[in-house]
Amino acid sequence: MLSKNIIVFVGCLFSQICLAQTDQTSDLKTFRSAESNQPGKLFPQVNNEGKVRASLYAPNASKVQLDLGGKKYEMTKNEAGLWTGESDPQDEGFHYYQLNVDGASIPDPNSRYFYGAGRLGSGIEVPADDEAFYALQKVPHGMVSENIYYSDLTKSWRRCFIYTPASYYENNKSRFPVLYLQHGSFEDETGWVNQGKANLILDNLIAQNKAKPMIIVTDNGYAFKPGDKEATQKGQGVSIFEDVLIKEVIPMIDKRFRTLADREHRAIAGLSMGANQTMRIVMRNLDKFAYYGGFSGTSNYPNTDVIDPNVFMDGKFKNGNEVNNKLKLFWLGLGTKEPAPFPKSVGAFKAMLDQQGISYTYYESPKTAHEWLTWRRSLQNFASLLFR
Fold this sequence. Notes:
Helices cover 27% and strands 27% of the residues. β18, α8 and β19 form a beta-alpha-beta unit. The strands form 3 sheets. Strands 12-13-15-14-16-17-18-19 form an 8-stranded mixed β-sheet, with helices on both faces. Strands 4, 5, 8, 9, 10 and 11 form a 6-stranded antiparallel β-sheet that branches. A 5-stranded antiparallel β-sheet has the order 1-2-3-7-6, covered by helices on one side. It is globular and about 70 Å long. The protein is built from 9 helices and 19 strands. Residues 1-20 form the signal peptide. This is Enterochelin esterase.
């Protein structure tokens, strides 16, 4: 008898939750389940204005908030213990978010998880008008492989991800150029595939003959000199990422994959922190790279002052003609809604390039800030110019 009562109780509770969720779906003509949800999850949802609606079953909680875009939105609880809340309209593209339950920030159990802000957490896709360029299309698809390696420089196990285009597997004698592509601060080597959709962007570009087939390598930009274990774990050790890339990763990729192993067929790019890192790397290794892309960042960040090319980066930009002769493409990108100090710091850097007569390509992503849609668009535009 007791077991029957429990079954009845659970059944009633489940039906209450389902009915509560059904009530929330009455306006699905405007609100749709997000593409970034876990399979089969109805919430979170996004409407045609970019508003986000989240839901959480937490009957014992006294306060639940949706934390999105730097603002916390109050959620309300129904009789079944189901909390729902709605945000203001969000910019198009991908955004990190979390739920706050009685003061504790937690990932949304309905969302897929992404590594950002130094931890695995929730993310949501707000549909964009131009999303077709990074959508999963019916075109030949390449492969993303995980490569684990031991670094003698960091004395630790590391990994990188390698995108190989569909044509890589059609002819085992063909060789391909390589783009080394770096993430931003508090992200890792998974970012460009999971959040950035780099593989899908290249699949679509290549299928439309808008980009040359290429290999893409994404590594972890946090690489530290062995020593202070606590500082290294906090990301505060002595960075040796440049050495890891130049001395370990590139030789390893050239050995394991069919690459065109010369500077004319090697590019490097990054976003935000990665843009700062890769700019320093390329200017100190012009014998290794012929293409550079900086998305939402330059190496004078966060400074916005006028740059003295005789002093900046040890005079690497002092001789404009030499830079022009070495780099086939110097590319910069920025969102039109980027926060301070990015517009002024990038602006100061561009002014220095103009002063030195250094050729560059500049792109602005419309109506986006320091976020993944800016960087997806940047990759789309940058990749289409590589290895021409």
